[in-house]
Fold:
Amino acid sequence: MMKRLFILVLATLFTVQTFAKANTLADRPAVKKYIAQISKEYKFNKNDLTKLFKHVKTNKTIIDKMKHPYEKKPWYVYKNLFVNQPRVDGGYKFWKKHLKQLNRAEKKYGVPAEIIVSIIGVETRYGRRMGTFPVIEALSTLAFDYPKRSKFFKKELTQYLLLTREQGLSTKAILGSYAGAMGQPQFMPSSYRHYAVDFSGNGKIDLINNTDDAIGSVANYLHRHGWVKNQIVVTAAK
Structure:
């Protein structure tokens, strides 16, 4: 009996260790190739990246959420998440609190304050829900375990590593959505690097803690993508 129990314990430990090793990324050929590539192209320290990915695990929940996104639900279901009284009340409070910066963004970029408020409200309930997944985990999972969009998420993973290096941020500490979007406006890393602005004028860009930067960055993003002032944004469909 004791011998069988001993064998069972050893088998369990071996299975757990094997799974843990398989669920980390650093030893995978595809990850090794990726590390070598971006180390050469962007002057990353190869050893530092290897150490980083040894602590990154893939997350099945992220894959499940990508396969069954809320956005695929019928409009009559989806709209109830956003078109409701708490969201309207929150928007009113947010607009009133940040009126000066919203007006400044509208004047500079031509994007109405209500559009900026609505986007931040839809994305994170005015900065209150910015995501619970480590961004490095989300992007790595989708880059290496979601073949359907692997190419896109590898690019975003690289943009994230560049962003954290440029901004002096902790690569492992930042939380975001299951798709790797960050901050109050939920910018993907590439959008964060290319369209986020220091709207507060404090010398750094922070879309997580600085609402002024979030407001200015949303307006700049739309402006850079061709927003035309005083043009219609919706029209009746026939």
Q: What stands out?
A: Residues 2-23 form the longest helix (22 residues).
